[in-house]
Design a protein that fits this description.
Elements (H helix, E strand, L loop, with lengths): L3 E10 L2 E9 L7 H8 L5 E6 L5 H17 L9 E6 L9 H8 L3 E2 L9 E2 L7 E5 L5 E3 L3 E3 L9 H16 L32
Parallel strand pairs: 3-4, 4-9
Antiparallel strand pairs: 1-2, 5-8, 6-7, 7-8
Helix pairs in contact: 1-2
Length: 203
């Protein structure tokens, strides 16, 4: 096994002492056995994507791998706290956030009529999680964050967000709020070449 483990004590929540066990594993596909084992019994997931243009294919493979492993345990990502962290935003070859969002976080269709309205992201005011697609469908994206891990920037925000969502889910389990969707598809064009840059945090 290859993973990092970090217990986090968040103090008392509604009279109960809350402690999170955080596990991190490398993004490479050959660490699949470790990732699959860690996902068993998982309460929340932070998917850390490498923002570099040339890592687009690897990001999609890792996302596909996440969907496959979750499905193997019978989990539905629309029912589990799930956020995305776009790391290495400081590098000159980082893809635009809008492009990364379209690739990895296009959104799932909202099927509940009561939720077919613009809904603000509670973690990033001014940004919408639920919005109307140009096609006319209402879609919901998961919370996403930009980070520069080597500088400690934007690292704790996604952790805080997923922890908040986990606590809400454990306190009041809710049915899926958006239709399950297929994992993001690989881009149809090759990523343009980019200048060499110093590596950031490990994907």
């Amino acid at each position: 096994l290859f993973f990092d483990f970090l217990p986090v004590d968040l103090g008392t929540v509604r009279g109960f002492r809350t402690r999170f066990h955080l596990y991190t594993v490398p993004g490479q596909v050959y660490y699949n056995a470790s990732r699959k084992l860690i996902l068993k019994g998982v309460d929340g997931v932070v998917f850390v994507a490498d923002s570099q243009v040339e890592r687009a294919e690897a990001n999609l493979e890792s996302m596909q791998n996440l969907y496959d492993n979750m499905a193997a345990y019978g989990y539905d990502l629309t029912r589990i706290p799930f956020v995305i962290q776009y790391n290495k935003r400081d590098l000159p070859n980082a893809a635009p956030l809008a492009e990364l969002q379209a690739m990895l976080n296009p959104g799932g269709e909202v099927t509940d009529p009561a939720r077919m309205r613009d809904t603000e992201n509670p973690f990033r005011p001014g940004e919408l999680l639920v919005s109307r697609h140009p096609s006319g469908d209402w879609v919901e994206r998961v919370p996403a964050f930009a980070s520069v891990a080597v500088a400690g920037a934007g690292v704790f925000e996604p952790l805080k967000a997923v922890s908040t969502l986990v606590l809400k889910t454990l306190a009041c389990p809710a049915p899926a709020r958006r239709a399950p969707r297929e994992p993001p598809q690989r881009p149809t064009r090759r990523a343009p070449s980019a200048p060499a840059a110093a590596s950031g945090a490990t994907h």
